[in-house]
Q: What sequence folds into this?
């Protein structure tokens, strides 16, 4: 798991040294510690780097050489407006009892812990650090609906990829993964379907605080848009069963979740660079995977397996370019959107056309293709700085 990253904002060198020593004592070698001693430097760091914990003073000089002033309101505003640290645990520590008393309610309403720098500050800070330590931080999380999809990662031959040990992570069925310096987990849902997908994704986001959550595996496809073996990346997704039944029939309520635009650009460029996915082909001794290519298309999710061409046509009519049908993707995207907009993508291989000819011959090779693409995509997305 990656190291905890902490920012200390403090202009008093002795106070800063005490706080940093307490943080190092708690986290040991598993911490990366940044320090800012003026407000301007703190703002740059708050907006430029994601932190697991921020510890700040309330009285700070705006720039080096200036007198310290009360920047309480600005601290609250900067934290709330930071796309990287809006969900970070924040602790404000002040020597001044009157300032703490005056600002306590405002900081509490903003979700910031405010404590006095007195005999009890270490205990209070340790409680906050325990909250951070409870989150086993990862760079990425991969969700799979079934074990076949996770086992497919044994067939990944990407440089630096490690298929790690099974772990029980706070009740989640997880396996540790590593891609070079990146650490992550791959979690299998207890059951297939939207409900388990949404719950597992939400728990994983809370527990691991990843920068990226994604889904790998297999799905059904629409004959007119995606031939068997096509790797589908969900462009927009929705629940095809959400709506209302009335006397005239079913009326869809299409609540869509889109693929983040920057992720879309990066993934599209991956496809353009390798349209037949030749870099993911199997070696002579490996399970042969499809090499049809990849597409970014709309997908629909529902809670039931579809094996009837008539029902598949009904779903296709919901959007002119529906590419695939699955049981989980919308739940993952929705969980990520509600968790502060964590970056998310799903890449699944079409192994049937959701019709009466549904079979399992392509399931294993399709899952391996998806696993290889997801690992390659994660590596490239982090290297590109898009996360």
A:
């Amino acid at each position: 798991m990656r190291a905890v990253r902490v920012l200390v904002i403090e202009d008093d060198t002795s106070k800063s040294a005490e706080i940093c020593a307490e943080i190092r004592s708690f986290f040991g070698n598993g911490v990366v510690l940044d320090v800012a001693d003026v407000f301007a430097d703190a703002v740059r760091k708050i907006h430029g780097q994601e932190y697991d914990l921020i510890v700040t003073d309330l009285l700070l000089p705006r720039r080096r050489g200036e007198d310290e002033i009360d920047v309480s309101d600005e601290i609250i505003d900067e934290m709330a407006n930071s796309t990287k640290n809006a969900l970070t645990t924040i602790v404000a520590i002040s020597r001044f009892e009157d300032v703490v008393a005056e600002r306590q309610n405002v900081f509490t309403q903003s979700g910031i812990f405010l404590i006095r720098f007195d005999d009890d500050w270490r205990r209070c800070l340790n409680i906050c650090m325990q909250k951070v330590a409870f989150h086993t931080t990862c760079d990425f999380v991969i969700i799979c609906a079934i074990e076949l999809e996770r086992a497919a990662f044994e067939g990944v031959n990407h440089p630096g990829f490690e298929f790690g040990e099974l772990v029980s992570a706070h009740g989640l069925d997880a396996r540790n993964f590593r891609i070079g310096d990146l650490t992550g987990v791959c979690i299998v849902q207890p059951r297939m379907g939207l409900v388990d997908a949404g719950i597992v994704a939400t728990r994983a986001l809370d527990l691991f605080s990843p920068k990226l959550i994604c889904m790998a595996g297999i799905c059904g496809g629409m004959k007119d848009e995606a031939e068997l073996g096509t790797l589908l990346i969900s462009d927009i997704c929705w629940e095809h069963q959400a709506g209302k039944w009335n006397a005239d029939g079913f009326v869809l309520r299409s609540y869509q979740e889109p693929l983040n635009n920057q992720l879309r650009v990066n993934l599209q460029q991956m496809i353009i660079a390798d349209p037949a996915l030749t870099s993911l082909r199997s070696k002579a001794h490996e399970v042969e995977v499809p090499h049809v290519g990849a597409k970014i298309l709309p997908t629909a999710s529902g809670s039931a397996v579809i094996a009837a061409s008539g029902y598949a046509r009904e779903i296709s009519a919901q959007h002119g370019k529906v590419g695939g049908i699955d049981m989980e993707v919308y739940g993952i995207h929705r969980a990520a959107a509600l968790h502060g907009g964590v970056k998310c993508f799903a890449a699944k291989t079409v192994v049937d056309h959701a019709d009466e000819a549904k079979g399992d011959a392509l399931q294993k090779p399709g899952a391996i293709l998806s696993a290889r693409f997801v690992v390659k995509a994660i590596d490239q997305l982090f290297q590109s700085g898009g996360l």
User: Anything to note?
Assistant: Residues 157 and 372 are 7 Å apart (CA to CA). The first helix runs from residue 13 to 27.
